[in-house]
Amino acid sequence: MPIRIGARFSLIKVGGKAELCSNCGAYAKICPMDIPVSQYIQNGQRILSDQCIMCQQCVNVCAKNALSLTLGLDGGSSLPLTVRKTETPPAS
Ligand code: SF4
Question: Nearest C-alpha to atom 4 of ligand 1 is from which residue?
């Protein structure tokens, strides 16, 4: 059960320009971590989720070039750290 603390406090995160985002929903379909990317962008925030693996699929899928990697200091999210459930191997 990995907790991605490093992702939360990373200086490099995906950021977006809300004025370019047409809220087409492409992010929701492609993000392997099911992160609500458009909610962050519409709120003027970078992707603060500790579940982001920085795969940049959301950056690449955006037809409006609304997303990019950004450098900044935002102290992480006010959301509690989450633990992603992973499959456990059967006991032998
Ligand atoms: S970089 Fe990858 S994991 Fe992070 S929000 Fe974009 S698609 Fe999801």
Answer: 52
DSSP 44: T
Q: Which residues contact 36 (CB under 8 A, 6 or more apart)?
A: 28
Residue nearest to atom 2 of ligand 1 (CA): 55
Domain membership flag for residue 61: yes
By C-alpha distance, which of 5, 86, 1 is closest to 52?
A: 5
Tell me, in angstroms, the distance from the centre of ligand 1 to residue 28's CA. Answer: 10
Q: In this predicted model, what pLDDT tens digit does every residue of 1-52 receive, in sequence order?
A: 455 666 777 889 999 999 999 889 888 889 999 999 988 888 888 998 888 9
19-33: b or e for each residue (b if 16 or more CB lie within 10 Å)? eebeeeebbeeebeb
Domain coverage including residue 39: 5-71
